[in-house]
Each structure stands twice: as structure tokens, then as C-alpha cells.
Amino acid sequence: MTTATVSPSLDWAKVDLSQYPRVTTAPPGPQSAAYHERCCAFFKGLSGQVKLFPVTFESGRGCILRDVDGNEYIDFSSGIYVTTLGHCHPKVSEAVAKYAHQLMNAHDFTTPIKTELCEKLADVLPGDLNGFQFYDSGTTAVEAGLRVMRAASGKNEIVSCFYDYHGKSYGSVSLGHIRSQVYGRVRAPGSHMVPRPDAYRPIWTTDDGSIDTDAYLRFYDQYLSKATVGDVAGFCLEPIQGWGGTIMPPDDFFPKLRKFCDERGLLLMIDEVLASWGRTGKWLCMEHWDVVPDIVTIGKGFGNGFPVTCVAVREPYKESFEAISASSSYGGNPMACAAALASTEVIEQENLNDYALHLGELAMKRMRRMLDEHAIVGDVRAKGCLMGIELVKDKATKEPFDQAGTLVYQKAFAKGLAWIPAGHILRMSPPIVMDEDTLIKGLDIIDEAIGETARELGAG
């Protein structure tokens, strides 16, 4: 285990566990319910996590969220993987406030702060990823990245994987797991999906029962030759599947996929909107496998809550931005660039990539105890502060236990843990500034909720 500790300058985020979490009114409380009812008279299309626990938040600082009834929660969600540095990080807030008073938007004209951000990105990113465009959402960045793929390759078809998530526009949805007729009764032309290795639920295994990554690549080769029209630009994948349930690839998958693409003249685009900027203990999650993608999208924690995302491309593909009408109304505005630069500097100065890795190791040690002690826990996984617990009805059959997932989520939330459900998979993304004791406290709450749920369902 690494020995990183919280930097003294991050003491502002340390949680006094004698005070937190604090649940004084059974949540969702009466004021939460009242606000929620008023808002939902107009506001529709809520996420599953809100529908399962409709609390109304009013403020947050560091690793603590406060609702309108005065309850205070340990945050294991980071605003859905966004506030990686905690809520209202002083350096990020100050940077945004400065430009909110100085210069809010200058379209895609050059500004000093944008220039400084570009130079910093070129410095911290691996390889020759040194061409950038900025956007205001992950979906918009993904769509721009896909256009770059097509412009750079001169080809149209793109391959993604089962259970990937890339956004909610027609093009990005067509490469993801969301299935709804409102996006069209067919996927966008040229969109393909193939299975990817999942060590817990493998399709192909070797004689000794371990996952056979090579078998997946052999299938890809067949698929490209039989199921496409031979106009494939490349692959677009998540490094770790977030929305799909924190699904980790085997360590040999991406190095082999990189070689596979290089041998066939295909581009490799990695959607790191969720997994980048300290979330897994690296600037890019792909650095865990020493793989440099041709195109990468960066987001969520990039601005620590401020809406800013990035498409980064390798040196040979920079000019492809010229071919796609790459600019946007809000992308690269001074406030956004200030938030992203401040977030980057905090991670760098506080050595938070290493600290996130340390928290992930600490979490795995605690979650392995849950795996050993609970019959309904089938698998646990973590890379940095991207964590998951998979609930099953039977460890041998691995049948998903969605009912248990819902109950554990609600029970832990009621005990003062704000976090993320995904059916039978429990997802956790605590801020990477969280102190060790608070991380363990959050996991203890989950452990307690799992035990209560197993007993209630007669599965313990």
C-alpha cells in the first residue's frame, strides 16, 4: 500500500467524525419533500438516484453535503464524479469568481487564461497529446472527438463496447448502452458495439478459467471483416465503464487493443470524461496501462464542478480540428479555463494522484472484508477513487441482485451517505481529498446497510 497522506493545506476538507454524518430528521425530510414537489411540477427527467432518494441539497463544503432539513452527509458521489476536489474548493472557487468579475466569455478568441491552460495540459498529459478544444459538457466533447476521428481517418464507422456510456445525443447514444426509441429506432449509421473483457463476467476464458483477452480481439477481427462495410475509423471506449457499474478491464486489454488498432490503421479514442483528472490516481486512466490514445475526452472533475470539458488529440491529428468546425459558444470561456487550470494545479501541487491511489488501496482492503463476510457481495473493485461493489443472489451463479442494490442505496443514504446506485452494482466516487478515517466511515455505513438488507431479504 502507498503511504501518501493528506497534504496539510487540505485540512479544510477534513471531516470531524464526531459531528458527521449528522441525520437529525429522517431523510428525505419535510422541507426536502416540499421543495422536491414544487420543483417537479416543472422539472422532469430526473436520474434514478434522485428518484430513489429525493433529498434537496442546499450547500456543500469539502466532503460534506447539507440538505434543507439540516441533515449533513458524507459525500461518496462527488456530484456524480464531478467535484473530485470536494465541494467549493477554495482555489477553484476563487479562480472562477475572478473571471466572473473580469471576463465571462470571449467566444473562441485567445485569452491569457486559455493559453496557460493549454500549456499546462501539454505538460501533464502523456505522449504527444498536445492539440486541444474545450467544451461545456461530456456529450459535446464526445461528439467533437468522433468528428475528429472521422476527419483524421477519412472513414465513417466507429466501434464501441457493450455497456459503454458516451453521452445522450444521437451519435453518442448510438455507441452506448442507453436504449430508447426516442433516440431513433436504429443506431446512427456506422455505429457498432462489441463485447469487452469483464474479469468478473467473462465470455471467453482460457483452460485454467482466467479471462481470455486474446479471444475478444480475435472476435473483433472477425467482426470488422464480417459486420462492417470496411469503412472503420477506429474504436471509442471508456477506460473503465462508469455508468455500466465500475467495470474494470484486465490489465492486458488496452495494450493489446492499442497494438490491434496500430496494426490495422485504426484510431483509438478513449472517453475519459468520468475517469480522468485524478479520479483513478492518474491524469488519464489509460496511464495505468501505459497506453496513449489518439483522441481522448476529459471532463467532470476537470473543472471540479464548473462545466468544462476537453478533447485532446495527438500531434498528427491536431489539424483535424480545422475540418470539423470545432468551436462552441461556451467552450474555453475564461471562467471554465480558470476552473480547469486551478483544478489541475491543485492536483499537481498536493500530489493528489498518488493520494487517490492510496485511498483506492485502503478501500479495497475494507471492501474485501465485505466480500468475505456477506453472501450477497459477489465482487469488489477500485482504481483510485473509482470504486464498485457488485451484489448477487448467489456467488456461484453471479445472478444480479437489483432489489438488494436499491435497498442498500436507500439504507446507506438514510444513514448519512450520499452516493450512486447502478442496479445491482453500488458505485462510489468519494472526493480525492477525503481523509482516511472518513473513507472508512463511509464504507462502514455501506457494510452496515448490506448486512441489514441481506437479513431483510433473507439472503444473509
Concise synopsis of the structure shown:
The chain has 460 residues and is an alpha/beta fold. The chain contains 13 helices and 15 strands. The longest helix is centred in the last third of the chain and has 22 residues, at 352-373.
CATH class of the largest domain: Alpha Beta
CATH-derived architecture of the largest domain: 3-Layer(aba) Sandwich
CATH superfamily of the largest domain: Type I PLP-dependent aspartate aminotransferase-like (Major domain)
Principal-axes geometry comes out as globular
- Measure the end-to-end span: 31 Å
Summarize the SSE layout with pairings.
Layout: H1 30-40, H2 48-52, E1 57-61, E2 64-67, E3 72-75, H3 78-81, H4 90-102, H5 112-124, E4 129-135, H6 138-153, E5 157-161, H7 170-173, E6 191-194, H8 213-226, E7 232-237, H9 253-264, E8 267-272, E9 295-298, E10 309-314, H10 334-349, H11 352-373, E11 377-383, E12 386-391, H12 402-414, E13 417-418, E14 420-422, E15 425-428, H13 436-456
Helix pairs in contact: 4-10, 5-10, 11-13, 12-13
Description of the molecule:
This protein is α/β, with parallel strands linked by helices and 460 residues long. The protein folds into 2 domains: 1-81 and 401-425, no CATH class; 90-349, Type I PLP-dependent aspartate aminotransferase-like (Major domain) (Aspartate Aminotransferase, domain 2). The chain contains 13 helices and 15 strands. The chain has helices at 30-40, 48-52, 78-81, 90-102, 112-124, 138-153, 170-173, 213-226, 253-264, 334-349, 352-373, 402-414, 436-456; strands spanning 57-61, 64-67, 72-75, 129-135, 157-161, 191-194, 232-237, 267-272, 295-298, 309-314, 377-383, 386-391, 417-418, 420-422, 425-428. The strands form 3 sheets. The chain has a 7-stranded mixed sheet with strand order 4-10-9-8-7-5-6, with helices on both faces. Strand 7, helix 9 (253-264) and strand 8 (267-272) form a beta-alpha-beta unit. Helix 11 runs parallel beside helix 13 and helix 12 crosses helix 13. The longest helix is centred in the last third of the chain and has 22 residues, at 352-373. It is globular, with a radius of gyration of 22 Å. It starts with 29 loop residues before the first helix and ends with a helix.
